Design the sequence.
């Protein structure tokens, strides 16, 4: 079974909360905790959406995003970027690199869910269990 | 034609009228093309021939009759000076043009710091020294008229009842009127004398032609040169056998050379009236040639007179009496006019030159002193005053000449009188030569030198000329004053061997020069002297701009008022209009630049002399108080250039340094800015991360009603943990900022640092075991007493050790903790075997929130405030915390603290 | 001749002219003799004088021209 969402987030607490919320929304998820692991997981799991933190260890979210977009196999992947720094600068860089959507920390869980849903092209009503 | 006194006087008057006409026309056409001839080098040369006065015309013949060839020295001296024009005269002319010099007194005053005192001194002495010379002219004219009267069978005519003295007085009065009418129509010495020069040139032609005519007549009458000299020899006239080439020869040659430079009228015609330097080039040979022509017939005339005239007749009048005796009345009249001509030209020019000196150096300064502030007064006042002063001084000068004539009328020879004047004015020569060639000659020395020379002249040359009319003087000359023999005027200090003229010349010039040299060596120059000396010496060096000692601010109106008072409205207007035109602006908005003030000063100097112009402008140019350093800087041209380039160099070096500093500061600022941005985003990140978790879990707890108890408890625990993390982050930030501001105080006391280290190791033990890190706590010292707060020191150690554990990425991580005491210092090192700190990050590891590229890779990294806090603490313990570079692997941090000495505390 | 040499020549011409007119050199012409009836010493002095005039004339044309730019002339003319 294909994974719906891959989460790349290094903070355990945040990862736990995200996983919980997205699982509850009815999607299947996988997670990685550093930048280097993202590409492998993307190729392996073929997720429909990637939730990507910018402040990742070993390889930053920007680098990961750039790699994804430059690889034909993954270039169509929908990417939701989590920006902890939240500054305009980060957001603009991510946009340049081809991020599809943004959520700024600290976020409301509902925002993340609706952003992911929009990327999955699922009407909110249908998604509701 | 019969020659009567009346005819002679009528001819003289007619001649004067002719001169007037020439002068008038000369003035009128001097500016136009027809006036071109007036400015030719030959007119210039002829005007210099004013040197040949009636002393030449009559006296030289007398001198040749008495002393043989000696008279030529009077012309050979100037010949040498003119042949060597390149070395002295050219310099004088150039300087005088550049500085607008109006007279010999002005020249000396200008060179010696624009000294008014020197100007006054030179003027007074010149007036006194010239008096005998004027007297000589009066005597010559009077004698020539007497000679005509004495030979005339028609008696004294209009002169009936006039004795010699009355005649001389009449001549003097006529001359005064004549000179006033001629020479004092305008103020500026530079502009007014074209007419006079033209008249003088005409007179030069007249006197030469007259003398040559008499000479040719004599040769004709005597039957040729050979016959003339043979007859003289036969008559026992051994005029060539006298000791011609002795000390007197040398002395009078030196005197004549000095006189051609120092005589006020010679300075006037040669230097002041010179309109083109190249004229001097022509005069350098033409003037000697003129003098040669004048001298050619002197000896024949003298010899012919001695052989043919009856014994006892005055040899001074041979030029006139020989034609008279031969019945050549026409030639005699011509000769009379020649002699009259030489006398009048001398008197006119000499008194004009002297009157300029008197008005510029005595009257104007006194006037300036009396009227401290009369700038608002009538603009014509000064000019009228100057003109009146000149007129008055002309009368005074002629009166003095007449006075001298009156007192010495018993003496008959003309030539010695002239030499007395020469000796007097020669006293200016050392100062003039110093002005031209010696930079260090000082004003005080010049004043002293001229005074000393002049006193000796008064005593040994001037005083003895009264011997024939005053028994007292004769007594002094024989026995010395009060019987003091070594003060006898003609045997000073017992020097009896020298002939009187040579004696006076020797002593006066020797002491004069000595005082000048020694005085200059022992005195110091003022700033202004320094400047003027440099200007005089560097006259042939091209200068970029004249440094004007007068600097500061003045309004154009003030300057114009001053200019109008001196130059007259028209000339002042023209000057200002020219300047405005040159500056390219309306004359109303003219800026009084230093250059303009300087030019104005020179223009004024052309009218009223350097010193007076300086004083006058100083009054309106405020801020004239130029600092001494500034003036000195301007003074020496070379010095100035050197300093200028040095200053430039300094300035550019300073600029470079400043630019570098600015660039550095800018870089730093940019860095600080970046760091601040980074700090803020770090704080934001550090705060946001726990906040995100807290918010996310609390939303889950709020929204998800069907949570199992286990999950709920776990989420609450996470929220609690994250809130604690948030709290400790805030604590650290506050702690650090308090430390940085120096607010946090704690009590330092002697403690055992090793105990703190042990405590830290215990705290970190759990973390080490969790990370599988081995801690090697050796080598260690047993104990080390330092002055510190145990908790704070422990905090530092814990931070270092935990960092070493957390940032160690080695496969089998090891952390080594060492301590030692080296000298008076206690050293703790915490090292790991991890990847170490990359070179480019080492300078930043103590920055706030800086965790390094590797630090970011570990989720266990703290907020990045541990090291900054630790360093702050150690610094406050008067120790140091540093990263130790050079270790082969891993990172090593070193804490150094001073070992506490109980003894030191007791002190 | 270079400019400096001409100036030096002019200086020496002047100096030697002066020396030749003073004792002891002038005493060399002091002997009994006549030229065209004129005593030798008189002839000597006047001849030397003539030589100096001629020399000065030569130098006046040879010495370098170093007049300043005729800027001051303007000031003097009305």
Sequence:
């Amino acid at each position: 079974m294909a994974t719906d969402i891959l989460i790349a987030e290094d903070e355990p607490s945040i990862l736990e909360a995200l996983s919980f919320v997205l699982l509850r929304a009815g999607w299947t998820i996988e997670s990685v905790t550093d930048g280097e692991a993202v590409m492998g997981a993307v190729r392996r799991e073929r997720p429909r959406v990637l939730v990507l933190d910018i402040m990742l260890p070993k390889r930053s979210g920007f680098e990961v995003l750039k790699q994804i977009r430059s690889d034909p196999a993954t270039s169509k992947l929908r990417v939701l970027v989590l920006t902890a720094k939240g500054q305009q600068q980060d957001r603009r860089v991510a946009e340049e690199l081809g991020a599809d959507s943004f959520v700024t920390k600290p976020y409301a869980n509902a925002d993340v869910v609706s952003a992911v849903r929009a990327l999955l092209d699922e009407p909110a009503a249908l998604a509701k269990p | 034609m019969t020659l009567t006194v009346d005819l002679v006087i009528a001819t003289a008057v007619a001649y004067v009228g002719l001169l007037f006409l020439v002068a008038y026309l000369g003035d009128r056409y001097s500016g136009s093309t027809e006036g071109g001839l007036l400015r030719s080098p030959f007119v210039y040369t002829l005007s210099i021939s004013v040197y040949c006065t009636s002393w030449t015309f009559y006296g030289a013949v007398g001198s040749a009759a008495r002393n043989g060839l000696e008279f030529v020295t009077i012309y050979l001296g100037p010949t040498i000076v003119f042949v060597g024009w390149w070395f002295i005269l050219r310099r004088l002319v150039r300087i005088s043009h550049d500085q607008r010099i109006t007279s010999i007194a002005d020249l000396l005053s200008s060179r010696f710091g624009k000294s008014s005192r020197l100007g006054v001194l030179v003027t007074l002495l010149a007036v006194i020294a010239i008096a005998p010379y004027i007297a000589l002219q009066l005597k010559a004219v009077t004698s020539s008229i007497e000679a005509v009267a004495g030979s005339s069978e028609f008696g004294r005519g209009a002169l009936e009842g006039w004795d010699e003295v009355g005649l001389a007085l009449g001549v003097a009065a006529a001359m005064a009127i004549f000179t006033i009418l001629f020479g004092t129509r305008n103020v500026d010495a530079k502009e007014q004398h074209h007419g006079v020069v033209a008249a003088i040139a005409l007179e030069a032609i007249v006197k030469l032609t007259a003398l040559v005519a008499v000479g040719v007549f004599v040769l004709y009458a005597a039957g040729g040169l050979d016959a003339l000299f043979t007859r003289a020899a036969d008559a026992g006239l051994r005029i060539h056998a006298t000791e011609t080439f002795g000390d007197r020869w040398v002395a009078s040659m030196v005197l004549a050379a000095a006189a051609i430079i120092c005589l006020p009228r010679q300075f006037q015609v040669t230097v002041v009236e010179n309109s083109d330097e190249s004229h001097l080039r022509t005069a350098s040979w033409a003037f000697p040639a003129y003098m040669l022509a004048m001298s050619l017939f002197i000896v024949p005339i003298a010899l012919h007179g001695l052989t043919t005239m009856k014994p006892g007749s005055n040899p001074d009048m041979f030029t006139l009496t020989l034609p008279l005796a031969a019945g050549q009345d026409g030639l005699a009249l011509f000769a009379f006019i020649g002699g009259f001509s030489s006398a009048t030209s001398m008197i006119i020019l000499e008194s004009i030159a002297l009157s300029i000196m008197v008005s510029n150096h005595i009257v104007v300064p006194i006037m300036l002193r009396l009227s401290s502030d009369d700038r608002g007064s009538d603009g014509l006042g000064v000019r009228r005053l100057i003109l009146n002063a000149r007129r008055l001084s002309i009368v005074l000068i002629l009166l003095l000449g007449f006075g001298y004539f009156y007192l010495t009328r018993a003496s008959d020879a003309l030539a010695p009188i002239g030499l007395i004047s020469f000796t007097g004015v020669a006293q200016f020569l050392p100062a003039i030569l110093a002005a031209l060639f010696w930079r260090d000659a000082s004003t005080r020395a010049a004043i002293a030198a001229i005074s000393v020379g002049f006193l000796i002249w008064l005593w040994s040359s001037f005083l003895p000329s009264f011997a024939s009319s005053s028994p007292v003087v004769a007594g002094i000359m024989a026995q010395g004053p009060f019987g003091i023999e070594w003060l006898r005027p003609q045997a000073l200090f017992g020097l009896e061997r020298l002939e009187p003229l040579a004696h006076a010349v020797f002593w006066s010039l020797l002491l004069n020069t000595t005082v000048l040299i020694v005085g200059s060596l022992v005195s110091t120059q003022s700033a202004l002297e320094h400047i003027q000396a440099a200007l005089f010496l560097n006259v042939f060096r091209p200068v970029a701009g004249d440094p004007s000692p007068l600097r500061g601010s003045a309004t154009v109106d003030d300057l114009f008022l001053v200019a109008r008072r001196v130059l007259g409205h028209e000339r002042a207007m023209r000057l200002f209009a020219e300047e405005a035109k040159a500056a390219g602006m309306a004359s109303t908005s003219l800026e009084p630049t230093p250059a303009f003030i300087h030019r104005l000063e020179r223009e004024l100097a052309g009218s009223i002399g350097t010193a007076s112009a300086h004083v006058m402008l100083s009054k309106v140019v405020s801020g004239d108080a130029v600092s001494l350093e500034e003036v000195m800087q301007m003074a020496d041209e070379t010095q100035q250039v050197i300093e200028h380039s040095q200053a430039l160099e300094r300035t550019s070096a300073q600029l470079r340094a400043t630019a570098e500093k600015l660039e550095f500061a800018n870089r730093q600022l940019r860095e600080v800015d970046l760091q601040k941005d980074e700090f803020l985003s770090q704080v934001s990140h550090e705060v946001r991360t726990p906040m995100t978790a807290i918010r996310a879990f609390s939303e889950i707890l709020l929204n998800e009603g069907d949570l199992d108890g286990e999950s709920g408890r776990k989420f609450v625990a996470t929220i609690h943990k994250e809130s604690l993390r948030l709290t400790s982050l805030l604590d650290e930030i506050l702690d650090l900022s308090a430390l940085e501001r120096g607010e946090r105080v704690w009590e330092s006391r002697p403690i055992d640092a090793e105990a703190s280290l042990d405590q830290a190791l215990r705290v970190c033990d759990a973390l080490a075991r969790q990370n599988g890190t081995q801690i090697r706590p050796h080598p260690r010292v047993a104990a080390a007493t330092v002055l510190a707060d145990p908790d704070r020191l422990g905090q530092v150690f814990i931070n270092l050790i935990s960092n070493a554990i957390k940032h160690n990425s080695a496969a089998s991580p090891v952390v080594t903790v060492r301590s030692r005491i080296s000298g008076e210092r206690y050293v703790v090192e915490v090292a790991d075997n991890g990847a170490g700190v990359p070179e480019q990050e080492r300078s930043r590891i103590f920055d706030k929130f800086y965790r390094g590229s590797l630090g970011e890779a570990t989720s266990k990294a703290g907020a990045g405030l541990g090291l900054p806090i630790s360093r702050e603490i150690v610094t406050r313990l008067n120790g140091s915390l540093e990263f130790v570079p050079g270790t082969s692997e891993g990172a090593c941090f070193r804490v150094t603290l001073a070992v506490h000495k109980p003894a030191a505390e007791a002190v | 001749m270079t400019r400096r040499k001409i100036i030096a020549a002019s200086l020496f011409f002047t100096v030697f002219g002066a020396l030749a007119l003073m004792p002891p050199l002038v005493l060399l012409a002091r002997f009994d003799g006549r030229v065209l009836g004129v005593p030798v010493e008189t002839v000597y002095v006047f001849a030397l004088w003539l030589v100096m005039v001629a020399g000065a004339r030569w130098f006046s044309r040879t010495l370098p021209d170093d007049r300043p730019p005729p800027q001051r002339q303007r000031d003097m003319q009305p």
The first helix of chain B runs from residue 5 to 29. The first strand of chain B starts at residue 749 and ends at 752.
